[in-house]
Amino acid sequence: MSTAPLLEVRNLKLSYGGITAVKGIDFYINSGELVTLIGANGAGKTTTLKVIAGLLKPSSGSIHFLGSAIGGQPAYELAALGVGLVPEGRGVFARMTILENLQMGAYVRQGSHSVKSIDHDLEVVLETFPRLRERLSQLAGTLSGGEQQMVAIARAMMARPKLLLLDEPSMGLAPLMVETIFGVIQNLNQHGMTILLVEQNARLALSMADRAYVLESGVITLSGTANELLNDDRVREAYLGVDVKTSAT
Ligand code: ATP
């Protein structure tokens, strides 16, 4: 028996006035998968995530999440249903402490608002991010970029998402911090979290994803397992910086 994907996007279009940023794309994510969407600047990756999270209304097409049509529903409803977005640039509340940022994350979830359940989840995310535990009363705006990324992911986790949308988590981070953040992402996925990862660092994203889609000027031009795309000459040339004419492999 086949089970329906956790997320299924069909013929999705989005226009900003006269500019069509997403031009009728189809993709799906099965429960437990880590799927990555790669593409150059301006390809439409952030737009796609914003539509799935309910921050933008699709111009046409459909989005099904957990078997129900969700296209056009507002972000707060989708967050309560289990769609968690970690936006590009992190979006932490700079004038709030880390603790307050994390507590805010718990507001959107359905049911289980008890202090006990929030404290339990706080304990779980702090185990994932021990660095945040040492700084709970520090203002988020004073954290390093990598620490802010940790807060953004941890805050999204506090909402108990069923699907985590990550927009460019490596952006602007030092290599060691990128490694830490991607270690956490991989760990969350290995513990069952379904993740849609948008990344410009295609090599890194493909190295840990199950499957991938390539988005070019609002159109999906390639898809397959991450391994297939890592070995695809078009991907190697355009996104992995390999000169396929001169490379032996
Ligand atoms: P990047 O990696 O640079 O963030 P992206 O793949 O995430 O790129 P989007 O941010 O989704 O790309 O942008 C897709 C296209 O839509 C671009 O041409 C961009 O200029 C345009 N666009 C994005 N936001 C708006 C907006 N609010 N108004 C008008 N056009 C927009």
Q: How would a textbook summarize the main sheet?
A: 6 strands, mixed
How do the strands of the widest beta sheet line up side by side? 6-7-8-3-9-10
Spatial separation of the terminal alpha carbons: 39 Å
What's the quaternary structure here?
single chain
Report strand %. Answer: 15-25%
User: Whole-number radius of gyration?
Assistant: 18 Å
Content-based structural category:
alpha/beta
Helix content: 25-40%
Give an overview of the whole structure:
The structure is a single chain. 37% of the residues lie in helices and 25% in strands. By secondary structure, it is α/β, with parallel strands linked by helices. Strands 6-7-8-3-9-10 form a six-stranded mixed beta sheet, with helices on both faces. A four-stranded antiparallel beta sheet has the order 2-1-4-5, covered by helices on one side. The model has no long low-confidence stretch (mean pLDDT 92). Bound molecules: adenosine-5'-triphosphate (ATP). Residues 16, 19, 21, 39, 41-47, 200 line the site of adenosine-5'-triphosphate.
Question: Any descriptors?
Answer:
alpha/beta, 25% strand, globular, 249 residues, binds adenosine-5'-triphosphate
Question: What's the short story on this structure?
Answer:
With 249 residues, the protein is α/β, with parallel strands linked by helices.
Strands, helices and their partners?
Blueprint: E1 7-16, E2 19-29, E3 34-38, H1 45-53, E4 60-65, E5 68-69, H2 75-81, E6 83-86, H3 98-107, H4 115-128, H5 130-133, H6 145-158, E7 163-167, H7 175-190, E8 194-199, H8 202-208, E9 211-216, E10 219-225, H9 226-230, H10 233-239
Parallel strand pairs: 3-8, 3-9, 6-7, 7-8
Antiparallel strand pairs: 1-2, 1-4, 4-5, 9-10
The structure holds adenosine-5'-triphosphate (ATP).
Adenosine-5'-triphosphate is lined by residues 16, 19, 21, 39, 41-47, 200.
